[in-house]
UniProtKB/TrEMBL annotation:
A single BP term in Gene Ontology: dUTP biosynthetic process
Gene3D superfamilies, per database record: 2.70.40.10
Annotated stretches, region: Disordered: 145-164
Keywords carried by this UniProt record: Hydrolase, Nucleotide metabolism
Record GO terms (molecular function): dCTP deaminase activity
Protein name in UniProt: Deoxycytidine triphosphate deaminase
CDD domains named in the record: trimeric_dUTPase
Source species: Rhizobium lusitanum
InterPro entries on file: dCTP_deaminase, dUTPase-like_sf, dUTPase_trimeric
Length: 164
């Protein structure tokens, strides 16, 4: 079941820190939404058409054992050709999210999607970048996430080989 705002707000300790009810940055919303939480980017990013970069969130997550998170695109950025990828946020995971960003613009779209004629996307630190949907598990997980990305530090984290 997808959690509405009041259920997300009621979880203690909070899933997201710092927790914001709602805010605006660059004409886009961040913080608690009707059924999710809109996160902000922690770095300035310049992304040329076809380019891929890692970024991270300003927000830190602490997932309860009975809640799973899923990262989704923000509509405004998606309409400009930006895709934000990430895996599921596992129950028990803690840390700052690393996001995988791809600018999918191609030459024929550039004049429609973004004011920059070359199709480059400029994303400033603090801008809303993705939305997180939280889902309640039928029962708490037997154990929480304990993999190599547990307690992820601020800043984008590159892929790690198993056992590292």
């Amino acid at each position: 079941m997808i959690l509405p705002a009041q259920a997300i707000r009621a979880i203690t300790p909070p899933i997201v820190r710092p927790f914001r009810e709602r805010g605006l940055a660059g004409g886009m919303s961040f913080g608690l939404s009707v059924a999710g939480y809109d996160v902000r980017i922690a770095e300035d990013i310049i992304l040329a058409p076809g380019e891929f970069k890692l970024a991270s969130t300003l927000e830190r997550f602490e997932m309860p054992l009975d809640v799973l998170g899923q990262v989704a695109d923000k509509s405004t950025w998606a309409r400009r050709g930006l895709a934000v990828q990430n895996t599921i946020i596992e129950p028990g995971w803690r840390g700052f999210l690393t996001l995988e960003l791809t600018n999918h613009q191609v030459r024929r779209w550039r004049h429609i999607l973004h004011p920059r004629p070359d199709g480059t996307l400029v994303i400033e630190r603090g801008m809303p970048i993705a939305q997180i949907i939280f889902m309640r598990l039928e029962a708490p997980a037997e154990r929480g996430y304990s993999g190599k990305y547990q307690n992820q530090e601020p800043g984008p984290q590159a892929a790690r080989d198993e056992g590292v």
